[in-house]
Structure formats: C-alpha cells, structure tokens
Amino acid sequence: MSLQCLAVNILTPQSSYTTLESILLQFPLGGIVFIFVLLTGYLSSRIHNICLIQLILCCLPVIAGCIMIWKSDWYHHAPTPVAGYTIIGFF
Predict the structure, then answer these.
(1) Which residue has the higher pLDDT, 83 or 52?
(2) For position 27, what pLDDT does the model report?
(3) CA–CA separation, 12 vs 18, rounded Å?
(4) Phi, psi angle pair for 3, to nearest 5°
(5) Would you list the DSSP string of 8-54?
(6) Cα–Cα distance between 66 and 76 in angstroms, integer?
(7) pLDDT digits (tens, 9 = 90+) for 9-67
(8) From CA 26, how far away is CA 70, in angstroms rounded?
(9) d(Cα 25, Cα 13) in Å, to the nearest integer?
(10) What are the distances in angstroms from CA 49 to CA 35, 41, 46, 54, 85?
(11) How far apart are CA 11 and CA 22, in angstroms?
(12) CB distance 62 to 90 below 8 Å
C-alpha cells in the first residue's frame, strides 16, 4: 500500500479531509524523505560506524509522531494528528 493511499485511509474518515486534501498534505513528506535518504547515505559513506547512531536518530521522529497521534484530540481538521502522521515517514 502506498503512502498516499494510507494517508487517504487514515486522514479522510478521522478528520474530515477530502481525498485530495489528504494526498496534498503528504507531498512535503516526499521531499523530506528524499533529502534524509541522501544525507544519511552520504554520511554513512564518509563516517565509519555511524549507522547505529543514524538508526536511532531516524527512529526518534517516528516515535514522536506516533505519540502525537495517540495523545492528540481528533476534531475537524485537527493539526496535531496530521503533523504526527507526516513525521512518521522519516524512517
């Protein structure tokens, strides 16, 4: 299942976003993932024994996003669950 389909399935019924709005909310995530993949790949090739540190640092935003979704209130166009869902894609 693609990320856009997952966004539609999660955001649309829970927070009253249309299908188009929920897909458009996920576009910045693609750019962030592209930059972080290139950055972590470059750092891994230049600095030895950094993979474990990068793994931990890439998991922290995912954990924070899950906590934001879990602990936030869901109401019409709630920004906190959307922001939490967006940063889950860092990993």
Answers:
(1) 52
(2) 75
(3) 6
(4) -65, -35
(5) HHHHHHHH---HHHHHHHTHHHHHHHHHHHHHHHHHHHHSTT-HHHH
(6) 19
(7) 555 555 566 777 777 777 777 888 888 889 989 999 999 889 899 888 888 988 998 89
(8) 19
(9) 15
(10) 21, 13, 10, 10, 30
(11) 6
(12) yes
Nearby residues of 57 by Cβ (< 8 Å), 6 or more positions away: none
Distance CA 81, CA 69 (A): 5
Whole-structure pTM over 0.85, yes or no?
A: no
User: In the structure, what pLDDT confidence band is assigned to residue 1 with cuts at 50, 70 and 90?
Assistant: very low
Q: Which residues have C-beta within 8 Å of that of residue 16, sequence separation ≥ 6?
A: 76, 77
- Enclosing H/E stretch for 56: helix 51-71
Of 31, 30, 29, 10, residue with least CA distance to 19 = 10
